[in-house]
Write a structure and sequence with these properties.
Length: 265
């Protein structure tokens, strides 16, 4: 084996909150390995593989992005991720090169995840059952399978990202998700049927997001009186309905792929 084939290209990121995934995660495939722990991510690529296919850097970046956005819609937690850096590690341990990439977000694959929620004193305030943990892991894996190739999934997760980061306009972005699904699947009735979403859920979402008196709503400009903030119940209900729609779309994509049927248009 040549020296170059034993050399390694390493990509690194830092992210917060450092416990976003709740546990150290390691994953490897034939092209690269990935390790995530304590707010840091590192991907290692054999130099020979990287030299043959430098675009693998972008592939890893997109892969990371999708998983992280899925975790965000599952937890409704914002995150920050640094730009990635790259080093070329020679077999003798010397660093041959170093430079910063232009973009950065994260996605990880695999591992046993801890989805418990704790307060500032590390006391557990929410400890999901195993079936809930299994569900989240499944959704992360489905995101890995479909994020790169499905533009609608990308738009759904980006809209949810905006809802988390811009709470003053949260219902505007949450309703965008429903509208994107309708555009993709052929209208309200076809969308509800394809995703097995009840008409009541749709109506509840419509009422909340379009309420003219709610400050975060889509039609607040039509209010005659003083605007009010959405209640905790309204926020929880709207988020729950929208996340169930995204989850249903992921399952829909998986079903379509397995049956090799064309997506609805």
């Amino acid at each position: 084996m040549s020296a170059n084939s034993r050399a390694v290209v390493a990509l690194k990121w830092k992210f917060s909150p450092s416990n976003f995934f709740g546990v150290a995660i390691e994953r490897s495939n034939k092209d690269y390995s990935l390790a995530i722990e304590n707010g840091q991510v590192q991907a290692k690529i054999d130099f020979a593989i990287y030299n043959r296919n430098p675009q693998i850097r972008q592939k890893i970046q997109v892969d990371l992005d999708g998983r992280f956005l899925v975790m965000q819609f599952l937890t409704h937690r914002a995150y920050d991720l640094s730009k990635s850096t790259m080093t070329h590690l020679r077999p003798d341990g010397r660093v041959e090169s170093f430079f910063e990439l232009e973009t950065g977000r994260i996605k990880v694959t695999g591992g046993t995840l801890d989805f418990r929620t704790t307060d500032k004193y590390k006391n557990i305030i929410f400890d999901p059952k195993q079936d809930q943990v299994d569900r989240r892991i499944k959704l992360l894996e489905l995101a890995a399978a479909h994020y790169v190739e499905d533009a609608v999934l990308v738009s759904l997760l980006q809209s949810y990202d905006k809802a988390v980061r811009d709470p003053n306009n949260e219902f505007v972005y949450l309703f965008e998700i429903y509208e994107s699904l309708c555009k993709k699947l052929g209208g309200k009735h076809k969308t509800l049927l394809a995703l097995n979403i009840s008409a009541k859920k749709w109506e509840d979402l419509r009422i909340i997001c379009n309420h003219s008196a709610i400050r975060q709503g889509r039609h607040r400009g039509q209010a005659c009186g003083v605007l009010r903030d959405a209640t905790k119940k309204e926020l929880t209900e709207a988020r729950s309905i929208v996340t169930s729609m995204i989850e249903a779309y992921l399952l829909y994509l998986d079903t379509i792929t397995k049956t090799k049927q064309p997506l609805a248009s």
